[in-house]
Amino acid sequence: GGGLWGRGGGEEEEGEAQVSSPPKSSIRTTSVTPPPRGMSTPPPSQPTVRAVAIFKVSVPGATSADKVLVVGNHRVIGEWQPSTAPVLSCTGNGDYEVTVSLPMDASTLEYKYVVVRSHGGAETECIWEDEVGNRRIVLGEASSGMLLEVPDGSFNANNHAGGVRLMLPVRELSRDEQLGATP
């Protein structure tokens, strides 16, 4: 008797096969459906930081009230806006440095150093390097995942000490160094 499906004879088995078939196919289809665009996340092995750079410059005549900035063409160095650029710390004797994490989209950086000098109150003066062209770093595969030293010599002088130096892989930095803390 095949009264269950409203069909008679051999159609009953065929009807049962059709009833069990849709759940199997929907499970199979669901398991291979890629996530919607914009909702996928990069694999965990994909680094978000290309390299870490330590910018160094000497600013003769700078005072403790002066701020020294590295300002350039990428968001991590202010997009040419001193108000959003990283401030260097004085390490003594007019020498300044700052550590900046460079993201994967930072492949070529152009930048200058800027001294922001206070004249009392809210009045300030931005002194840009104007006697040298834009300083430039090209980050290739060799620099990926590395700590880079960028010894740029003196402010407003084209006397940097040999360009960018690869120091060590970023993963070997201590937690404090990665956070930009100074010893």
TrEMBL record:
<dbReference type="Pfam" id="PF00686">
    <property type="entry name" value="CBM_20"/>
</dbReference>
<feature type="compositionally biased region" description="Pro residues">
    <location>
        <begin position="33"/>
        <end position="46"/>
    </location>
</feature>
<dbReference type="GO" id="GO:0016020">
    <property type="term" value="C:membrane"/>
</dbReference>
<dbReference type="GO" id="GO:2001070">
    <property type="term" value="F:starch binding"/>
</dbReference>
<dbReference type="InterPro" id="IPR013783">
    <property type="entry name" value="Ig-like_fold"/>
</dbReference>
<dbReference type="InterPro" id="IPR002044">
    <property type="entry name" value="CBM20"/>
</dbReference>
<feature type="domain" description="CBM20">
    <location>
        <begin position="45"/>
        <end position="157"/>
    </location>
</feature>
<feature type="compositionally biased region" description="Polar residues">
    <location>
        <begin position="18"/>
        <end position="32"/>
    </location>
</feature>
<protein>
    <recommendedName>
        <fullName>CBM20 domain-containing protein</fullName>
    </recommendedName>
</protein>
<feature type="region of interest" description="Disordered">
    <location>
        <begin position="1"/>
        <end position="47"/>
    </location>
</feature>
<dbReference type="InterPro" id="IPR013784">
    <property type="entry name" value="Carb-bd-like_fold"/>
</dbReference>
